[in-house]
Design brief:
CATH topology: Glycerol-3-phosphate (1)-acyltransferase
CATH architecture: 3-Layer(aba) Sandwich
Strand content: 15-25%
CATH class: Alpha Beta
Number of strands: 8
Number of helices: 9
Largest sheet: 8 strands, mixed
Number of domains: 1
Distance between the termini: 28 Å
Shape: globular
Length: 241
C-alpha cells in the first residue's frame, strides 16, 4: 500500500508540475531566483507528502549547523529516499549534483533543472568540469547544492560507505562556500532492504555536521579536504546509527 500511495503521489506531482512549469517559465529570465524558490517549495511539499505516505519517521540532528548562506551538502548514499530526506530537512533552496542518466527522464528532468540540479557525466572530463562549474555558479547565485560522492547507492553491510570520489567537492572551492557533511542513516530500511521494489514504513536519521569553511583552509588542508569530509561522515554514522 505504501508503494502505491508514494508512486501515485509522485506521478501526480510530475503531472501537475508540467503545467506549473509552463506558468513559471517566464520567471527563468526575469526573476530566476524566485522561479527556483517556487520550484523548491513545490518539490519540498511533494517530498514531505511522499515521506508521510511511505510511513517514514524522520529524525533530524544538527540543524543548527546549517549556515544561513548557500553551501555544499556532502552526504553518504544508501537509498532513493536520501534525496527526499535531505531536501525536507533544510530550509535552503537545494539542487543536487545528479548522474547524467536522470537528465533523460521526461518531465522529471525539467523539474530537476528548475530547482537547480545539474547532471554529471563521470566518464567525460570536460563535461564533468562544466557541471562542477555550473554547480558553483548555482551556489554563488543563492542555491545550495547537495552531492553524493560515492556516485551510487552503497549496498555494503553495516552502513559502510562506497568509494568516495572527491571531484564534486571542487564546487565548494570554486564558489568559496561552506561544506556541510551529512550522514543519512537507515534510509534503506524504507525500500532497498526489502530486496524488491517495495516501500515499507521505517525510521531514518539525517545528521548535519559542523560546516567546514573552505576560505579558512590553507593549501595543505584543502588537499586533504575530501578525506576530512569522508571521515566526518563516517564518524557521524558510527555515533548515531
Amino acid at each position: 500500500m505504501h508503494t502505491f500511495l508514494v508512486m501515485t503521489n509522485l506521478f501526480l506531482f510530475v503531472f501537475i508540475g508540467f503545467f506549473t512549469n509552463i506558468l513559471i517559465w517566464p520567471m527563468k529570465k526575469l526573476k530566476p531566483a524566485l522561479q527556483i524558490h517556487i520550484s523548491n517549495t513545490t518539490v519540498r511539499w511533494a517530498f514531505w507528502r511522499s515521506l508521510f505516505l511511505a510511513g517514514a519517521k524522520k529524525t533530524v540532528i544538527g540543524e543548527k549547523n546549517i549556515p544561513d548562506e548557500p553551501c555544499l551538502f556532502v552526504s553518504n548514499h544508501r537509498s532513493n529516499f536520501d534525496i527526499l530526506l535531505i531536501h525536507t530537512s533544510t530550509r535552503h533552496d537545494l539542487g543536487f549534483i545528479s548522474k547524467k542518466e536522470m537528465n533523460k527522464i521526461p518531465f522529471l528532468n525539467i523539474q530537476m533543472r528548475n530547482i537547480g540540479c545539474v547532471f554529471l557525466d563521470r566518464d567525460d572530463i570536460k563535461s564533468g568540469l562544466k557541471t562542477i562549474n555550473d554547480a558553483a555558479e548555482n551556489i554563488k547565485n543563492g542555491v545550495s547544492m547537495c552531492v553524493f560522492p560515492e556516485g551510487h547507492r552503497s549496498k555494503k553491510p553495516n552502513m559502510e560507505m562506497g568509494e568516495f570520489k572527491a571531484g564534486a567537492l571542487k564546487a565548494a572551492e570554486k564558489a568559496n562556500c561552506p561544506i556541510v557533511p551529512v550522514a543519512v542513516i537507515d534510509s534503506d530500511t524504507l525500500m532497498e532492504q526489502t530486496g524488491k521494489f517495495k516501500i515499507v514504513s521505517g525510521k531514518a536519521k539525517v545528521i548535519f555536521g559542523e560546516p567546514i569553511y573552505v576560505n579558512q583552509l590553507d593549501r595543505q588542508e584543502k588537499r586533504k579536504l575530501a578525506e576530512r569530509v569522508e571521515n566526518e561522515i563516517k564518524q557521524m554514522i558510527e555515533e548515531y546509527r
